[in-house]
Specification:
The complex is a heterodimer of chains A (about 110) and B (about 120). Chain A is an all-beta fold and about 110 residues long. Chain A contains no helices and eleven strands. With about 120 residues, chain B is mostly beta strands. The chains are: A mainly beta (about 110), B mainly beta (about 120).
């Protein structure tokens, strides 16, 4: 029972490259979210999903796409990486509204 | 616009001291207030949470105090230990009728407990 698994743990991209951050959960939770963590800014919500086939934007969605084809997986795509997207990205899942959020270990992304 | 304001940014206490971290919010529709603890290189993990119908909640050495009229809540760590050294985030969320679970986080407090 791994919980929430994020891959890769570290990534360096060149400006303009695209990539997908993977998130998988084995907790059978409907709710999944992506956050980015930047110094002095806390965690900010990028996109979230309330179930397979349903996604919506959070606070800072620009430059990112998501899809949710299965309950288990919620990949985050960077379309054309920019230095401003250098951050630590966390995927989280919850069982339901206003319940504990379980976070993955994070992906540290550097865009040069 | 920071909907949840957290202070201080960093805090150093001696072992056994009682660090206090404060958060203030503006949206009176928030109805769930969790605190998360994060160690270096790890994801945040739920520490304790409170709902606005109570003024205080204790779990072990951790206590949340909640002041609904002032729109403030705080985390107290009793008898703090070096192992409590971490970053602490307060958060808030709104009941959107079951449609979502969007957490709004504060900016975090880096706590160092010196032995």
């Amino acid at each position: 029972n791994a919980g929430v698994t994020q891959t890769p743990k570290f990534q360096v991209l060149k400006t303009g490259q695209s990539m997908t951050l993977q998130c998988a959960q084995d907790m059978n939770h409907e709710y999944m979210s992506w956050y980015r963590q930047d110094p002095g800014m806390g965690l900010r919500l990028i996109h979230y999903s309330v179930g397979a086939g349903i996604t919506d934007q959070g606070e800072v969605p620009n430059g990112y796409n998501v899809s949710r084809s299965t309950t288990e997986d919620f990949p985050l795509r960077l379309l054309s990486a920019a230095p401003s997207q250098t951050s630590v990205y966390f995927c989280a899942t919850t069982f339901g509204l206003n319940t504990e959020a379980f976070f993955g270990q994070g992906t540290r992304l550097t865009v040069v | 616009q920071q909907q949840v304001k957290q202070s201080p940014q960093s805090l150093i206490v001696q072992k056994g001291g009682i660090p206090i971290i404060n958060c203030a919010y503006e949206n009176t529709a928030f109805d769930y207030f969790p605190w998360y603890q994060q160690f270096p290189g790890k994801g945040p993990a739920l520490l304790i949470a409170i709902r606005p119908d109570v003024s205080e909640k204790k779990e072990g050495r951790f206590t949340i105090s909640f002041n609904k009229s002032a729109k403030q809540f705080s985390l107290h760590i009793m008898d703090s230990q070096p192992g409590d050294s971490a970053t602490y985030f307060c958060a808030a969320s709104i009941d959107y009728g079951g449609a979502t679970n969007k957490l709004i986080f504060g900016t975090g407090t880096l706590l160092a407990v010196q032995p």
